[in-house]
Structures are given as C-alpha cells and as structure tokens.
What we know:
The model is unreliable at 1-40 (pLDDT under 50). The relative contact order is 0.13. The strands form 3 sheets. The protein has a 7-stranded mixed sheet, with helices on both faces. A 4-stranded antiparallel sheet has the order 10-11-13-12. The protein has 16 helices and 13 strands. By secondary structure, the protein is α/β, with parallel strands linked by helices. It has helices at 19-22, 54-74, 86-93, 104-113, 137-148, 156-177, 191-206, 219-227, 248-260, 283-293, 311-316, 330-333, 350-355, 387-421, 446-459, 486-496; strands spanning 2-3, 83-84, 184-188, 210-214, 235-238, 265-271, 296-301, 325-328, 341-345, 426-433, 436-441, 465-469, 472-478. The chain has 2 domains: 61-82 and 119-136 and 388-503, Aspartate Aminotransferase, domain 1; 152-383, 3-Layer(aba) Sandwich (Aspartate Aminotransferase, domain 2). The structure holds pyridoxal-5'-phosphate (PLP). Pyridoxal-5'-phosphate binds at residues 131, 190-192, 195, 218, 220, 271, 275, 300, 302-303, 329, 341.
Amino acid sequence: MTTAPAPGPPAEGADPPPPDSVGETDGVEPGPAGAAHPPASGPTGGAGPLGFDPAEMRLLGHWVVDRVIEHLEGLPRKPVVRTGTPAALEAALGGPPPECGGDAREALEVLTGVALEHMQHGDHPRYFARVPSPSSFAAVLADWLGTGFNAIAASWAGGSGPTTVELVALEWLRELTGLPPGTEGIMTSGGSVANLTALAAARAAEGPGVCYLSDQAHASIGRGLRALGFPPGHVRVLPSDEGLRLPLAALAAAVRTDAAAGERPGFVVATAGTTNTGAVDPLPEIADLCRAEGLWLHVDGAYGAAAALCDAGRRALAGVERADSLVLDPHKWLFQPYDLGCVFVTRPGVLERAFTMTPEYLADVTGTAGEVDLRDRGLELSRRARGLKLWLTFRVHGVARLREAIAHGIGLAEHAEQSVAEDPRWEVVTPASLGIVTFALRGAGPEEHRARAAELAESGYAAVTSTRVHGRPVLRLCTINPRTTRDDILGTLARLGVRLSGV
Ligand SMILES: *Cc1c(COP(=O)(O)O)cnc(C)c1O
C-alpha cells in the first residue's frame, strides 16, 4: 500500500538551516553547537560531549520503551505492510545535514511516526509473506542491553562475557539440531552471510572443486559462490524433482560425469526447508553420497533448520545432523529480531583455519587455550554481541515453549492446506511443509494471483506472497508466527476468495 507519511510532528531536524546560519560556514568559526538553536532537550554538560544527563536519559529511554510496547500491543490491529513514496519519505526524513541539534523527543517522534510506520511488520500475526520474523520481547530486551552496553564479541580479551554467551547459545542450538559434539560456530547477520562463511570455510579446507545445488537453492548460495570466485563452470545447478527436491540420481550422475572428465567434485549444497515451498532435500541419501565420494555437505537450513527443535520438524529434517556445515537463521523461526544468522561447521578448526588473522595491532588481544576469538571464525572483526538475545530467549522461555511455538507454526500451515482443499475451485499445489503451503485458483493466471495478494496487502489485513511453483502461479503462506490463530488463517483465506465450509 502506498501512502504518504502519516501526518506527524514537524520534522524539525530535517528543515533546511535558517538563512542566518548559512554564513557560519563561510570562513567564520561556527559558535558552540546549540548556541543559535538552544535545544529544548538534548546534550547537556553533565554527561560530557554527545551525552545526556541521567534524568534526561531516563525520560527518553522510558519514552522509547513505551512506544515499543504500544507498538507491540497494537500490532494485530495495524496494517501488515505500509510503503511510502520516495518523495514523501524524503520530504519528512531528508534535507541537508542538520548543522545544529534539535529536540530529541521531536526527532524520536519522526523516527517512530514516519520511518517505522512505513515498513512490513514481519512479526504481525497475519504477515504470511516471504519469511516472517516473529520476534520475541525477551530477545528485544537483550538486544537493547547489548546496544546500551556497546557489547563487542570480537576477541576473548575484549569481550569474554559476550563471547561466552554466543558460544553457549550456539552450543544449545548445536545440541538441539543434533549436530555432533565438537561442532564450532559463529553468529552472523543472517543466512546469506552464514552461507558465504560456510562456503568460504569449506573451500579453504577442501581446495577448489565443483559445487552442486538444485534450482530451489536460495539465491544467496549462487551469489556467495560468485563472490568467492567459483568459476561458472564449477557451479552445477540441477533441476529439482516433482517434490522440488535435489534429485539424488541426477546428483550422483553429475558427480560421476565430472570426475570422469577430470574435474574435482567438491561440495554439495542441500536445502533443509526451501524458502519457496519448505521442501527438504533427501538429506540422509545425500549425506551417504557425500561420504562415499568425499564431498563436503553444506546444508542451508536458514529457514527450516530451527524446526528440528520439535518432533514433527525433527522427522522432516532427518539427516540434517550429518552436514559438514549447517546454516540456521534465528531471525526467521527462532523468534529473534533482525539480524541473526548462525553457521555451524562440524570439523573443529576449519573456521579458524579459514579466517584467522593476527596482525601486530591485534597481538595483545589474542586468546590462549579455551579462549575463543570470534573474529577468527568469520569475516567480521568488530561485531555486535549477537548471542545475547538468543541466550536470553532460551533462558526466559525454555526449549519446551520454543518447541511448542515452532510446532504451532507447522500445524497452522497444515490447517491452511486442509481449508483450501475444501473448496474445489482451488488446488493445493504444494502441501504444508515446515510451515509453508502454496495453492492456486484453478484456471487463473499470474495476474489474478498477484492481484488478490496485492488487494489483501492493501487492505492492511494480511500479507501473502504470490510466486511460482514448477512455473505455475500460486499464492503462498508462511505461518511461523506463534501468535497467529486459526481464525487469522481462515480470515486470510476467506479474503483471498477461498470458500470455507466450516465457517
Ligand atoms: C532467508 C534464507 C536465506 C538468506 O537469509 P538472510 O537472513 O535473509 O540473509 C538463505 N537461505 C534460505 C533457505 C533462506 O530461506
């Protein structure tokens, strides 16, 4: 839905500077900041430059907390998505760099009232498009703390506490996904960087080789391989089977053909829960092939791997524990706000051998035995303490609650599938798989499907994706929000035109 920014307080910080301040830049020393424009609130002496006094910090901090809680409370009644026009948003948020500071409350109001009003709400109970991000408040609290303390998790010397929290949270996830003890990992900004990190480590360990994946693999895999300099001739994209899975026979044949032609087969990328349909590649069989042929098995579970926490997901994901590397995105199905991805490598030392750097200026922050320098496990040096939020979520809610929350999402997609199947004018195209279901209106083309999805999003009630499966236009629901009810699902289907017999 395209709207102008909500009418809000005037964006004072975005106004061009008044004419009398222009001359200040013209060879004249500017006066002390704020002299010409005394801020109603803002930096004051007590906390030094760029600070606030403690009373003011409390006021502003409480104001921010209140706005976030108001937002979360009202979320089910808010439009699921709101998009502004570049011109309207630029008018409210842009302008020249503000030479003089302004009122902090007013600037915060512009951020909350304009910037944060024009976005998708991936944690809205009726956000079923792409991949939702049903973030939990426990995670938000920990993220706030980490930012407030400016926590860093780069080296042991510089952040032993936050580093331990990250390692502990990774170890919990390692155990819950069934990966072997001794597996090492690191948190990243998300699945794309996690995939890149795993592929870079795999290639460093194994040397150059051909990489095999299916046409349903996430686009970040192809981009990662390009970024790593895999020549196009070393990337084999195999057409997926009717179940949208990596076809085992074709994979084995491609490996044999390459080996016979003098190429070196090196890596297989399997997906544990494709983004489009939730399909899971045949992991046990692929793992057998990889073992027999000496290939590195990378499993992209950015979307689906978290489902291993619950029984239904564990069954669907059998074999995921045999990966050499595994990616999992807690900002998708583990209730974390953006951003948080995880990469695991089951062979100890592989990440460090790929990424260690010890220049002179880091010699005094190099750890000894048992002390992990996370900067040596990935591509980031300075990095936020991403583990805090996941650790707190586990500690506050416990695995049992998280397991239930994930199982709820799997059940909702099955409920949607059954409801669609009741209307003969519609067809379930891919059955519910790990919280994703796709369906089509018989005889309708891509425009009709797109139009229904767009109309629904414009109404503000719900967001679904229109996509293609085997070239066929479909609508797609991704139902991983534990706050979504069955009525939310039925209300959404009804508005898309599905006739529901039981309602
Ligand atoms: C979402 C997704 C990614 C990319 O993850 P980001 O966190 O968006 O970078 C990679 N692979 C799969 C299967 C995904 O669903």
